[in-house]
């Protein structure tokens, strides 16, 4: 056992079992006087050992599972025809669908594994990729309830990421957007998709599970004075009204509420109407259209 | 604040090659030559993002059709087999060394208005690709443009040029302005067809020329006019437009939304007043700057650090 003079365990090649795959994790000497310290150290040593040690070679039956074909039997198939198409995130124009025919399992794994994709507008997290026997591929998809289903890649007709838009999560409206980051994932992940709370300038990435939860909450909510009361009572801090408009609480300014439009401040609510901060915003027809859709009148 | 008529070349110390375009063509396939004769307009480069592929780059040129045709002949002579995969594309650089920053801003705005139409006219596989992401698929452009305009006023001396640019995987890449003096348009599919590449270059040239005579104060009116007359805007860039009027109007409307945001940001950046640096920054208390000893020997009390006084 490679333990030094001070009784410390070091992750050397021998200790990690590079020469002997059956090596066991080190035992930590017991000392009643320093039990708490040793317990903590033992935890670190076990962690290092498990992270760094060489794994034993896979058995033949495990090798057969490498392309993950067993998932086809283990989990049910996702029936796409039962998914109602969601129109929550359109761009106002019918754009063409985007699909890439990946040429290898490695490629499809690199581009889609551990990302969020939309199937008929419904968000799914890609929990795994499957190389099928006929040379085609399938994806193991997880929804918000963490139930797993597999879907042939051919049945996915659009890999385009969602349009930027507002979502609700835990009483806060977030502006979710993607950036043209230099990385190789086609699906949305915390490295290329960010969320910014309405009324705040800071943005951050999000975990796939959070993203799934967020993307479910995209109902249009018409503006009502009651929403201001909810904010005054700190029940909610901001709320999505539609894809492009969100309402948020203005800090240190009494009972006034602010309105954000595609990620930037648009105006303040004055007597249940929207007073714009920049008079130029009264010009474009699309801003009027988006605000009128949720019952906000600009002046 | 005024937008000074400074050229890109003067800002970054670049010499104008007096040629309009530079073309990069990424190809994958078999027998692609990795060395080309020196007397041609092309040179070959390895590209890590390609699988068994090569990237062919021109020197600055005014004759994209002839150059691409020459490349096509060279590839045919080497019996190259080209496979069009989703990793391959054509990037067209437009020279901006002698253009002013007003022209850069105007082209960025015009590009974002025309971008949905450009992508609509491309074959499937380009609109939505992660290698040339559009403004309507992403949401960071207004934020980056705000920083760009602020930094432009400071002649890119505060944080540097690269920090205020978006990543290069956007449909319009500005990060080469400071070393090549070009704007890179990345949406085009791989092609070794000379007339086709020349047509794309003409579209880009039309886009740049469209905004050349428009002064910075009239950018807002420019957007309004394009929104009202989408077909005129489309014909000015593409000549004959192979899609219907209703679709063109919808696509220009989508582009105008982004374009309007950019114009608004640009106008707001011009309205900002320059900070008066002659006044020393500090907390003022009845005419005395905190922490600084006036001439008469009186020291202002620092209310936040009174431990010494208490002793």
> Largest beta sheet of chain A, briefly?
5 strands, antiparallel
Backbone CA Rg of chain A? 26 Å
Mean pLDDT of chain B: 83
Which residues of chain A sit in consecutive blocks of at least 5 with pLDDT less than 50?
Answer: none
Describe the structure.
The complex is a heterodimer of chains A (299) and B (311). In chain A, 21% of the residues lie in helices and 23% in strands. Chain A is α+β, with helices and mostly antiparallel strands and 299 residues long. The model of chain A has no long low-confidence stretch (mean pLDDT 81). In chain B, a hairpin with a 7-residue loop joins strand 2 and strand 3 (53-58). Chain B is globular, with a radius of gyration of 25 Å. The chains are: A alpha+beta (299), B alpha+beta (311). At the A-B interface, strand 6 of A face helix 8 of B.
Topology record:
The complex is a heterodimer of chains A (299) and B (311).
Chain A (H helix, E strand, L loop, with lengths): L34 H18 L7 H5 L5 H5 L30 H8 L3 E4 L2 E10 L5 E6 L5 E5 L12 E5 L2 E7 L14 E5 L6 E2 L2 H9 L8 H8 L5 E3 L4 E5 L7 E5 L2 E7 L2 E4 L8 H9 L6
Antiparallel strand pairs in A: 1-2, 2-3, 3-4, 5-6, 6-7, 7-8, 9-10, 10-11, 11-12, 12-13
Chain B lengths: L7 H5 L8 E10 L11 E4 L7 E6 L5 H14 L3 E3 L6 E6 L5 H20 L20 H13 L18 E2 L8 E7 L5 H17 L8 H10 L1 H9 L6 H27 L12 E2 L2 E2 L17 H4 L1
Helix pairs in contact in B: 2-5, 3-8, 4-8, 6-7, 6-8
């Amino acid at each position: 056992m490679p333990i030094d003079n001070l009784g410390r365990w070091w992750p050397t090649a021998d200790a990690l079992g590079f020469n002997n795959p059956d090596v066991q994790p080190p035992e930590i000497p017991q000392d009643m006087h320093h039990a708490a310290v040793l317990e903590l150290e033992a935890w670190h040593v076990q962690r290092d050992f498990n992270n760094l040690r060489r794994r034993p070679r896979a058995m033949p039956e495990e090798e057969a599972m490498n392309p993950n074909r067993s998932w086809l039997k283990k989990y049910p198939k996702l029936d796409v025809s039962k998914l109602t198409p969601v129109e929550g995130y359109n761009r106002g124009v019918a754009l063409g669908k985007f699909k890439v025919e990946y040429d290898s399992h490695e490629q499809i794994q690199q581009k889609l594994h551990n990302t969020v994709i939309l199937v008929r507008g419904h968000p799914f997290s890609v929990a795994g990729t499957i190389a099928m026997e006929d040379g085609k591929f399938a994806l193991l998809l997880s929804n918000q309830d963490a139930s797993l289903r597999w879907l042939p890649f051919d049945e996915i007709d659009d890999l385009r990421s969602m349009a930027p838009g507002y979502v609700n999560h835990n009483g806060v409206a977030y502006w979710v957007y993607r950036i043209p980051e230099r990385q190789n994932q086609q699906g949305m992940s915390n490295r290329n998709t960010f969320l910014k709370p309405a009324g705040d300038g800071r943005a951050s990435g999000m975990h796939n599970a959070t993203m799934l939860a967020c993307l479910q909450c995209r109902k249009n909510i018409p503006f009502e004075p009651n929403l201001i009361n909810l904010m005054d009572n700190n029940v909610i801090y901001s709320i999505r009204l539609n894809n492009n408009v969100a309402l948020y609480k203005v800090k240190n300014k009494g009972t006034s509420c602010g309105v954000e439009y595609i990620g930037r401040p648009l105006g303040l609510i004055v007597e249940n109407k929207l007073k714009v901060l920049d008079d130029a915003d009264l010009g474009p027809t699309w801003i009027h259209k988006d605000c009128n859709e949720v019952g906000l009148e600009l002046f | 604040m005024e937008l000074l008529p400074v050229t890109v070349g003067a800002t970054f110390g670049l010499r104008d090659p007096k040629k309009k375009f530079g073309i990069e063509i990424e190809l994958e396939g078999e027998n692609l030559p990795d060395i080309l004769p020196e007397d041609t307009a092309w040179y070959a480069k390895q590209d890590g993002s390609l699988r068994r592929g090569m990237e062919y780059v021109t020197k600055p040129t005014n004759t994209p059709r002839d150059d691409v045709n020459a490349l096509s002949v060279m590839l045919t002579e080497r019996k190259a087999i080209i496979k069009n995969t989703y990793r391959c594309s054509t990037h067209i650089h437009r020279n901006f060394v002698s253009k002013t920053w007003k022209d850069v801003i105007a082209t960025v705005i015009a590009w974002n208005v025309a971008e949905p139409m450009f992508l609509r006219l491309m074959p499937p596989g380009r609109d939505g690709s992660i290698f040339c992401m559009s403004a309507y698929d992403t949401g960071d452009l207004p934020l980056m443009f705000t920083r760009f305009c602020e930094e432009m006023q400071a002649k890119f001396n505060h944080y540097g040029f690269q920090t205020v640019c978006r990543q290069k995987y956007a449909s319009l890449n500005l990060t080469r302005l400071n070393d090549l003096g070009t704007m890179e348009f990345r949406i085009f599919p791989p092609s070794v067809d000379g007339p086709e590449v020349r047509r794309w270059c003409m579209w880009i040239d039309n886009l740049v020329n469209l905004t050349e005579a428009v002064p910075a104060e009239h950018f807002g009116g420019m957007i309004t006019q394009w929104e009202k007359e989408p077909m005129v805007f489309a014909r000015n860039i593409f000549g004959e437009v192979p899609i219907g009027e209703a679709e063109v109007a919808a696509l220009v409307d989508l582009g105008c939304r982004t374009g309007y945001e950019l114009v608004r940001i640009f106008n707001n950046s011009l309205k900002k007043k320059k900070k008066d640096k002659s006044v020393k920054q500090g907390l003022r208390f009845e005419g005395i700057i905190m922490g600084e000893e006036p001439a008469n020997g009186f020291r202002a009390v620092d209310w936040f650090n009174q431990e010494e006084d208490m002793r």
